[in-house]
Amino acid sequence: MSVKGTDVVERKPRGGQDAAESADYTTGSGAPAAAAATLEQALGVQVRAIRRELDLTVSDLAGAAGISVGMLSKIENGQISPSLATLQAISKALNVPITTLFSAFEERRDCSFVRANQGVVIERRGTKVGHQYQLLGHGLGGDIVVEPYLISLSEEAAPYTGFRHAGVEFIYMLSGEVLYRHADRTYHLRPGDALMFDSGASHGPEDLIVTPMSYLSIIVYGRDRH
Question: Are residues 213 and 132 in the same domain?
Fold first, then answer.
């Protein structure tokens, strides 16, 4: 497991009955179980990712590696087990060590760890005076981008309802009180209240009823692969 941060203790499951019982533990999430990738699938994912980073087409890479387009397509889709000679040809065409092609098969998952009060304070586009954004996580890969912020509004902060961006936003009120606008509706948020919405519509705090205030904002959107 790759972890950004320090002082993290990784606990391994105990054997015997405890291990068997732990296999039955689930969360309340509706997310499907994470499937274990085969070596062929992991190789395919890695080859495709590097090829796209280099802005190469399947035809480009197949030609450079001296293999057919059909074979490369099957490799990228994890449908065949390529020989070491073929993998060596592909790695040479991609200008990476052959070991790089196997790195996606390593049992790793990204993790971002941020200590209390150590989030990166950033100036988000459109940030207004008195609106402080503290980024609580970063560096994760994949097709989905997740940006968790601790937003603090001071007594000098001014209302602003013109925020618009791609994706979905989730807000959890921690302190203070606000009348929060989303599109043509407003929501009276107090500590413990939650709001999730399409962030493509105009939104933001319309009436700062009790300040200073703070709330957790999690923005989720698809990663731009172009």
Answer: yes
